[in-house]
Amino acid sequence: MRSTPGSVYKKSLTQLGLIAVAAVQLFPIVWLLLFSLKDNSEIFSGNIIGLPKVWRWENYSQVFANGKLGLYLFNSIVVTFVTIALTSIFAAMASYAISRMRWKLSKLMLTIFLLGLMIPIHASLLPVFLILKNLSLLNTHLALILPYTAFGLSLAIFVLANFFDTVPKDLEESAFIDGSGIYRTFLKIMLPLVQPAIATVAIFTYLSSWNELMFAITFINKEEIKTLTVGIMSMVGQYSTAWGPIGAGLFIATLPTILIYVLLNTQVEKSLTAGAVKG
Amino acid sequence: MRDKKAIMIFVLPAFIVYCLIVLLPILISTYYSLLDWNGISQGTFIGIQNYIKLFTGDPIFIKSLWNSILLAVLSVFIQLPISLILALVLASKVKGSRFYRTVYFIPVVMSTVVIGQLWMKIYHPSFGLLNDVLGSLGLDAWKREWLGSESTALGAAFVPIVWQYIGYHMLLMFASAKSIPDDIYEAARIDGATGLKSALHITIPLIKPMLQVSVIFAVIGSLKTFDFIYVLTNGGPVHASEVPSTWMFNNIFNQYLYGYGSAMAIMIILECLLFTVIIQKMFKTEQITY
Fold it and tell me: Which of A9, A42, A48, A105 to mutate to test the interface with B (most CBs of B within 10 A)?
């Protein structure tokens, strides 16, 4: 690389621009952390942006003790975890049958599943609400788990069927020759092989269920079942004037996601762009 | 393998859940949309009356439609160009590329509810960050009740929507630009095309398929946008920031207009499909000119 004064100047200008954008992208979360550690008198007396004068960690214990944050967190974990498990296993089974077994309708079946990539949840909101109501499933964890799973299946099957296509057939065939049945082969040989694809599925399922709002506010209004997204909305009502505890709640709701992203960023980016690859 | 029973066992769980919750409801919604129904009494079949009312008797729906189209325009002409510039810069072997990508992507993984609540605090009329900064710059006259006044609510609610997904589109474009083989750039460099020139004449034409995906995602995402508007303004004040999804939600769950609200849901889907087809056509015709 030549490094004329001009190119050095240009390079530092580029870096400056990139840092400025980084500041804009990061600022809200940093600001959130800062005001979650202040109390109202400090914020309202003018220290809106700066570092807290006293670091009030008690805001965090307060939302756990007085608020229902722990409960919301628990519900989000249950719903998300079961959704990930169901989506992965159902999608892996269906993808295996579509990609590896020979039957006339397998192509059509794949097309039907992929159709779901285009369908917004809006059209199913009312019908699913009424179905859940008739089955007395409103205000249960299942009211969210089933829709989240159903809407996650399309992308999951897209990712998994493509992955199954790339797995060589020898392993499976030698397992059959050794007398291993189809279910055993699927569980013991194929599932471990497609783990990377399952990781991709797990991550986008996590993000979409953890952050989902429209179904959650429609199907859940009982405190005991509320997930974080709905819970935060009612928490904001409860603490409408206390910024510190609200900030603490928001930060806790976001922390798991940020941790997962920071630890697994390449994997997360791959998951979230999986749907765009086909176009 | 042609074991019929095994095939059934493998496919059925996914297929049943998917049909019951994704496919079947579209048919049910289409049927509801032809009814005059409040959810309690028996619905009466009224043909396409609901659809006629949408376009001739509901100025709020029309307004919400325009609002969502405005958002689509802003996404395509403000959000995507920013994403594209960032992607091109980061793909050109700049120092710290990995770090910047990670940071720019963080808003994408965060929950819209959390980001929404955060922006409510930014816009807070008395103690919000925005008014505070304006005050300290001596621009007190610019202070507003950003989300509370009809003239600014829509714009203020759109800012975080456009902001959140800059990193997403950047990543799509970045990945696509990175997949162009190095020797193409090399050949261009020998021909004298570097920097801006190579970006305009090589990278952008070659990542066109991904740009098309981005435009479709941005437009569709705007047309069905819900979360931010619901959290920030819920369509108010006086429907100034209404979008089709919030108005649909309001009609169904606050006014119990099940039939009419379903017609809106179907319209949103049709609108998304229509725009997808239009965008695909636009990219096709443009490609021929190359």
Answer: A48
Alpha helices in chain A (DSSP H): 5-35, 40-44, 58-65, 69-100, 106-115, 122-134, 142-166, 170-177, 182-185, 191-193, 195-211, 214-219, 228-238, 243-263, 265-273
Task: Look at the block and give the residue holding tokens 């816009």.
Answer: B123
Whether B129 contacts B191, CB under 8 Å: no
Peptide linkage before B125 cis (omega within 30 of 0): no
User: Which residue among A103, A124, A229 places its CB closest to the CB of B26?
Assistant: A124
Task: Give phi and psi for B70, each to the nearest 5.
Answer: -60, -40
Out of A122, A147, A257, closest to residue B248 by CB: A122
Distance CA B32, CA B15 (A): 24
* Torsions phi, psi for B207 (to 5 deg): -95, 15
CA dist., res. A254 & res. A210, Å (int): 10
Q: Structural domains in chain A?
A: 5-60 (no CATH), 64-276 (1.10.3720.10)
ipTM summary value: 0.89
Backbone φ/ψ region at A74: left (φ over 0), alpha (ψ -120 to 50), beta: alpha
Q: How far is CA A234 from CA A67, A98, A222, A237, in A?
A: 10, 44, 11, 5
How near does any CA of chain A get to the CA of B109, in Å? 7
H or E segment at B11?
helix B4-18
Q: Which residues contact A173 (CB under 8 A, 6 or more apart)?
A: none
> Tens place of pLDDT for every residue, chain B, 290 residues?
567 888 889 999 999 999 999 999 999 999 999 999 988 888 889 989 999 999 999 999 999 999 999 999 999 999 999 999 999 999 888 888 999 999 999 999 898 999 998 898 889 888 788 888 898 888 888 888 898 888 899 999 999 999 999 999 999 999 888 888 888 888 888 887 777 878 888 888 888 989 999 999 999 999 999 999 999 999 889 999 999 999 999 999 999 999 999 999 999 999 999 999 999 998 876 554 43
Return the amino acid letter for B132. D
Domains and CATH numbers, chain B: 56-288 (1.10.3720.10)
A32 vs B contacts (CB less than 8 Å): 114, 118
Using CA atoms, how far apart are residues B107 and B25, in angstroms rounded to an integer? Answer: 32
Do the Cβ atoms of A25 and B104 come within 8 Å? yes
